[in-house]
Structures
1.
Amino acid sequence: MIPQTERYREMVLKSLNNERQRQLAARVAGVFKFLRSYALQSYADPAQVMRDVADIRARSVENMSELLERFEERATAAGAKVYWASNAQEANQIITDIVTAKGIKLAVKGKSMVSEETELNHFLEKAGVEVYEGDLGEFIVQQLHQPPFHIVGPAIHLSAEEISDLFVNLMGIEPTLDPVALGRAARVYLRDKFATAGVGITGVNVAVAETGSICLVENEGNIRLATSKPPVHIALMSIEKVVADVGDALEAIGLLTKSCTGQKISSYVSMITGPRKDGESDGPDELHIVILDNGRTAFYQDPELRQALRCIRCGACLGVCPIYTRIGGPTYGWIYSGPMGAVLNPLLLGINRSQDLFEACTQCGFCQEVCPGGIKHLDMFNRYRQMVIHGFPALNVKKEPKEGTRFMKLFAWGMRSPWRYRVGARLGRAFLKKYTQGGSIKALPILKGWFQYRDLPAPAPYTFREWWASQESQKTRLNAGKERSVTHGQ
Amino acid sequence: MSPAEPAAGEPRQIAKGEVEVFLREAQIVSAKVTVVPGKDAIARGVAELLGEKEVKSMLVVEDKRLDATALKKTAKELNAEYISTWELSEKEYLDKAFACDVGITCCDWGVAETASVVIFHRASAPRLPSVSPPIHIAILYTSQLLKTMKDLDLVIKQQKHMPSAVTIISGVSRTADILLTPTLGMHGPLEVGIVLVEGSETA
């Protein structure tokens, strides 16, 4: 998917006019939100587990370089080959070289966000390798050449008719609107691919430093097939996936599946350590693990920004975001959407080009309440805003003059002293009254962007201070006249 | 913190048992469980789980924890071909794994809180029989039942060498990728049966 986060504003307007997409985004988010809150009840103390996992993620990110070195050492000792890729191009090249050197023509893939990030499929296909996504939703959007709609349900936006039409053309099945029958058709169609593929390519949910293992979480069984039958397994992971030990991995996975699909645990968790050993009759002969940086170490240098790496891609933040639930995933212009996208896309693609994503945030804070990684989204967004206003050369963030910056500076100055506030309010009201027409203000010579989508109500006939003063003086008058006071509520 | 929880710094004991929890959770993840009194009754449990299903072939990972002779008899009664993984060449095995109707495997551990069965894959425990056939039947002893994933972590920590793969299986393969409709059975087994054997696998 070609990143186009700079088109966010334009795409938001389009999405808001797309009734079906709006309804879907809200429905999907509502279902996942409900399932998550239900699943969390299975913990004796959900809040404590949230804190524990946030702590695991924080520790893992803080100790990342040591953990990665240990992971490399242990994985290599177990017989895996570990590669370091500094960017998407390098990762794709490493993987394509492994595949083409063996003359492999057919690859089966497990759903992996990092491979979406590097656009691996495209790269492999250019090298003449046929790639099949194994996850049902991912397979459907791949065949339709569409980007995934939702991180958990990539094809959730498509109707049964659309999927049936696709399968009729692709597999020659009888048309059907039954989701179960469509799933079965895909099972039959992809079975042969799993059985004959030369390589299985997967992501990594968690990498374990202590044992050199990679953990893969799934429900469909496609990853298990892709890591059991083909003679070669290639796993692509980003650097932040590593944790210290199996205990940390299992605890994080437990919260991942609950936050993601509302399952206590997914149907399958595979913990893979090296290729198959002597005497084993299945499993790959070779395991290659490609560790991708792709811009992460650049922002890792900043202690506040590195918390973005605590994200475990569960998607819980999507379900609770008032922005996401109204516009849906594709609007975000890249593979990561919702609050997750508003945190990650600016750092991975560039803050200037992605600024509308975090500028759109309403600061309600629901995302950080549900985040298993303990990411403080609001602090991140405010930091990004500051970076744009002041510039941040370390990450190539260009200073951009913002409409309203001067006004906000003046406002802040005025608010810092009671008399400046009073004078300011008086002047401000006089100014606003000048532009009032028929009970509202439709435009001002300043803050033009703000008035693009909304009007401001006309200022009230008097201020609160004026009202209070009049009440006080009335009371004084009443008391002075010794009139009988009226009491209420008796 | 529950009273059973150790104080900080104290080694945690591996907690076992909780058959009722396992049975309840198994229902939630759509795994059918039949409880049998001992190793001798495993074949009966398998027959019970397969019921009236039309089964043409049965791929069995033979193991001292199951009674192969009795299982062969069950296969015969069901008119199903009995295939032992150990009697096949690697190529034959890989072909059969994708062609057979039922895969029967033993397990290393079970986890009650999630109704999981855990397989440590090694030369004696291949990977495909529990994922490629449409039906997977797992043989699990009550002595192998752990309470929580934390206990599984402790068990894994005791391994001198990590197996090439550890698989935690919790129910059938599933998806909700089309219209959010829950669909049981995707690329992995459409049905999972567990024969829960009372007693110890080492007895």
Note: Residues 19-197 of chain B form a domain with the Rossmann fold fold (CATH 3.40.50.10420).
2.
Amino acid sequence: MLIKNGSFDKKWLMDKRKIRDLICTKLMLIITIIVSILFFLIFLILLSKSSLILGSESITDLLFSSNWNPSNGNFGYFPVIVGTIIVTGLSLIIAIPISLLSAIFIAEYAPRKIRKILRPFLDVLAGVPSVVFGLCAFLFLVPLVRDFIAPFFGIESTGLCLFTASITLAVMVFPIIISLCVEAFSSIPLELKEASLSVGATKWETVKKVIFRATAPSIISAILLGFGRAFGETIAVNMVVGGIPKVPSSLFAPTETLPSLIASKYGELMSIPKSESALMFGALVLFIVVLIFNLLGLILLRNAKKRWKL
Amino acid sequence: MNKRILEEKIFKILMYVSILIVLGSLFIIISLVVANGATSLSIEMITQTPTGGYYLGKSGGILNAIIGSLFLALPATGLAFIISLGIAIYLQRDFTNPSISSFIRLSLDILWGIPSIIYGVFCLSIMMFLGLGASLLAGIIALTLLEIPIITRSMDESIKMVPNGLKETAYSLGSTKFETAYKVVRKQAMPGILAGVLLGLGRGIGDAASILFTAGFTDNIPTSVFDSTAALPTMIFHLFSSPIPGVRQKAYAAALILLVIVLCISIISRFLLRKSSKFILK
């Protein structure tokens, strides 16, 4: 009887543990599924919200018309999209050489001790909030551009311009590109470098002809991911870009970027359904562009990692 | 021969220049914020809420933003921690087929890259659909979504490091998959998990774009989750937009407070990571 009782208890206990296991496992499965289709959900919501404007105006009009005048119901995104591409492109042109050379220095040239000191500094730079970046750019870069750089080229500028925004963005993407590149550079097999050095190549020749070639996919993916980050950066750009939706006439002219436009106009336009829908269309464009760049970058990165069997 | 050595030297100098540019920009940021913030920082600023004419240069402080930031970031990080732990455990080989988990990791990485303003717009759309406007709750949800991919991916990395032998021992003693994951693997990976959580907290507390519309803006300390609230990043943004120099000066003080909080979180997280790698069984 007692033994029977005991075995009954044990069986019941076993069942309780199994039930808990089952419940928790299923719960984790559900959460995982929800989060992994979250990006699809975001896409659907943005699409349904922008369906109003897509129904009344053609998509080519929205993307390629330069008439931005919300009070008259004209939503031409062309100047803003061009502004975003120029600001992001210029920031990457500034950031890529500096980041690559820094990454090479950290991965190949710097002594162990200095490397150990440098890493935390990069982490700190990566962790600085974007609003602080914007504030510092406003304090430091805006007067610099207004009083020195723009007059040097003979152009009048308020300092709130494309050039300032690009430099700010470049500093913001430094840590992303550098850390991804350092990881790539230090993951390639030592034999490759040794083979090159042993046939008499200088260190820089090894870097140029062996390391850069071996890690080319990783470098490109780092650039693509940096592009995605720069393209979507909102607050810091908003503070220094000038906020005028026009195709910029010079390097020192104010312009506007897509995320910055959403941030500054959403509060004022959200009460009118059509304007809100137009801004949602802007968010959809931003989402799709960033998604494509990130996806390309991530897939390249994965293939590169498989190549050197990480 | 000379040309090759010259090239080597030129590029070495260029490398020094670029690393100096990177470190110099960090140095400029920190020194600007400290120099400008310290002059206008006062006890009053962190112990009082704004009075009526605060944005016109009258007295008051930004206590509402500091409290608001904590009310937003701490619950969001807590929620994201619970959700992320579930996902990170589920991503392991014991639960999921590697080919499926690699797809889930890809989608998490994609989520990581989505601009925070998209999360803000997305959450506000959902909130409007539910009939709620800008509120503390909406801000918390936006930050939670923003933090989930960050926390999950770093938890995933540290949980992956747990040696298989440890799991096999637990299994051989008859524990279920969940018990092994929760009681053995989680405990072993705890310092790394906490470092991931702090990384998410640092990102959440500093992010402005996602809470710009979702959390709204007010001078009061929120009393319920349906109130709108101010936060440090949005407060900086508002103070900065003021045309009055004295008010703008306060934005630098707020930025100093924010920067100190973020730096502290980052230092603690680094310390935990170092500790975690020390005790990992190999």
Note: Chain A has a mean pLDDT of 86.
